[in-house]
Design a protein that fits this description.
The chain is of the alpha+beta class and about 200 residues long. It has 2 domains: about 1-75, Glutaredoxin (3-Layer(aba) Sandwich), CATH 3.40.30.10; about 85-195, Glutathione S-transferase Yfyf (Class Pi), Chain A, domain 2 (Up-down Bundle). Helices cover about 55% and strands about 5% of the residues. The chain contains 8 helices and 4 strands; from the N terminus they run βαβαββαααααα. The protein has helices spanning about 10-20, 40-45, 65-75, 85-115, 120-145, 155-170, 180-190, 195-200, and strands at about 1-5, 30, 55, 60-65. α4 runs antiparallel to α5 and α4 (about 85-115) runs parallel beside α6. The chain starts with a strand and ends in a 6-residue tail after the last helix. It comes from Pelomonas margarita.
């Protein structure tokens, strides 16, 4: 089994943190910006989107970072991270899907302009910052309700993927809303193995 993708990618770090939590030694090859091009035919044969990461497990190939995280947890029978009970699992997957869709889309313009240096209209950047804070406030409200983790008392894969997004929000050069439940939750996440290596490591 191996993972293809550069460690500076948030989506790659979702998978590497999951692997660390599972105690899984997951070899990784650098692909993407600054490394081997994901537009090479050999890579596109694995992922036609030309994006990272990609997991290769024998003759099984999987892309989409949240799907990879779920696969690894299921493969190793880690029901603490990904519950087997249908409703509990659905709740975890709901917040993972929200992270990949709604939350990520809210910050994309602001992050790419302010951190990656891509051109963008100032009003578009400001709208993205407002949307980013609004979505983070939704997460804050959920964490205030649970008083612990994203879906309740237990740490799950939802916290893994949301934790990386929250750390990006915390480090971004933007005006941030005051979100005490998010702040307290990030402190709790800090106790998890691999947090300092894959989340609170200074990477954007």
């Amino acid at each position: 089994m191996k993972l293809l993708g550069r460690l500076t990618s948030l989506n790659v770090r979702k998978v590497t943190w999951t692997a660390a939590l599972l105690g899984l030694d997951l070899p990784r090859e650098d692909w993407g910006t600054g490394f081997q091009s994901t537009q090479q035919p050999e890579y596109l044969a694995l992922n036609p989107n030309g994006l990272i990461p990609v997991l290769v497990d024998g003759d099984f190939v999987l892309w989409e970072s949240n799907s990879i995280c779920r696969y690894l947890a299921a493969k190793l029978g880690a029901t603490a991270l990904l519950p087997a009970e249908p409703q509990a699992r659905a709740r975890v997957e709901q917040w993972m899907d929200w992270q990949a869709g709604e939350l990520n889309n809210s910050w994309r313009v602001a992050f790419m302009a302010l951190v990656r240096g891509q051109p963008a209209a100032p009003e578009a950047v400001q709208a993205s910052v407002v949307g980013w804070n609004r979505h983070m406030a939704m997460l804050d409200a959920q964490l205030a309700r649970t008083g612990a983790f994203a879906t309740g008392d237990a740490f799950t894969l939802a916290d893994v993927v949301l934790g990386l997004s929250a750390q990006r929000w915390l480090n971004a050069p933007i005006e941030r809303a005051s979100l005490p439940a998010v702040s307290a939750w990030l402190q709790r996440l800090g106790a998890q193995p691999g947090f300092s290596t894959y989340v609170d490591n200074g990477m954007p």
